[in-house]
Amino acid sequence: MADGAHPATAHAPLSPAAAEGAPALAYQRVLLKISGEALAGEQGFGISPPVVQRLTDEIRRVHQMGVALGLVIGGGNIVRGTTASAQGMDRVSADYMGMLATVINALALQNAMERGGLETRVLTAIRMEQLAEPYIRRRAIRHLEKGRIVIFAGGTGNPYFSTDTAAVLRGIEMEADIIIKATKVDGVYTADPKKDPNAQFIPEITYLEALSRELGVMDAAALSLCKDNGIPIMVLNLDTPGAVARAVVGERIGTLVYSEAAPAPRLERRAQA
């Protein structure tokens, strides 16, 4: 196995529906990171039912392909810890409020998915047994092996860590093949494309380049974790129909962030191990 590559793992077999006639998967186990702002849609705050329904349909499509899927959702559509702290609130309290916002989003998405016939489990880093299961790594992996969609809520359970870092941490723990970050833009640009008309799209970039150029892919802690564990990141637009489904079969969509060695499909790396 190449130096720095994420360890190869034996995942649960694909479902019969996925095995017959479905495109071959480039990534069998995926951690999908969704920004809280994406759930707000055009209204800019709170939870937009049409957006949640569209997201549910996308998740269903990916799940039916046989992908073991874990989700991490931000809480910025309700409260963002860093913003509240900048406005004078105690940082620790503000971050815990942000963690609770991720739980609200997780429960909303779970409700929509279960109404659509998808079996899900919400696991929280902060214990609240009346609402969800406490996060236990072995339990999370067992849920995935049983074909359930797992939503990780409550961030890392600690202040000063972003939901990007929580997503990477959970991706490492669940032995994900890739982390897909679903945003409101088509990938990574040299500048904010909504503010700078001259911003150029970057189809692929290494972890070190993303860190040194401060392109806002993820925060430094999250990127460093990915680099140390060899997990690629794909940044794509959640509003593009079928984007996640196209990504898991290996189609080049959005921006791929990878290690300094040339990027290779995860299953190819697994075969070489």
Termini distance? 4 Å
Radius of gyration from the alpha-carbon trace, in angstroms: 18 Å
* N-to-C series of helices and strands: HEHHEHHEEHEHEEEEHHEHEH
Kindly state the percentage of residues in helix: 25-40%
Low-confidence stretches: 1-10, 12-19, 262-273
Q: In the residues, how many domains can be counted?
A: 1
Helix-and-strand structural type: alpha/beta
Task: Based on the coordinates given, report the CATH architecture.
Answer: 3-Layer(aba) Sandwich
Q: Count all strands and give the number.
A: 11
Beta strand %: 15-25%
CATH superfamily: Acetylglutamate kinase-like
Strand order of the largest sheet: 4-3-5-2-1-6-10-11-9
Q: Give the rounded overall mean pLDDT.
A: 87
CATH top level?
Answer: Alpha Beta
Largest sheet: 9 strands, mixed
Output the CATH topology. Carbamate kinase
Shape: globular
Oligomerization:
single chain
Descriptive report:
The chain has helices at residues 16-19, 36-40, 49-64, 81-86, 91-115, 137-145, 163-173, 207-213, 220-229, 243-248, 266-272, and strands spanning 29-34, 68-73, 120-124, 133-134, 149-153, 178-183, 188-189, 201-202, 204-206, 233-237, 255-258. The model is unreliable at 1-10, 12-19 and 262-273 (pLDDT under 50). The strands form two sheets. A nine-stranded mixed sheet has the order 4-3-5-2-1-6-10-11-9, sandwiched between helices. It is of the alpha/beta class and 273 residues long. It is built from eleven helices and eleven strands. The protein has a single domain, classed as 3-Layer(aba) Sandwich (Carbamate kinase). Helix content is 39%, strand content 17%.
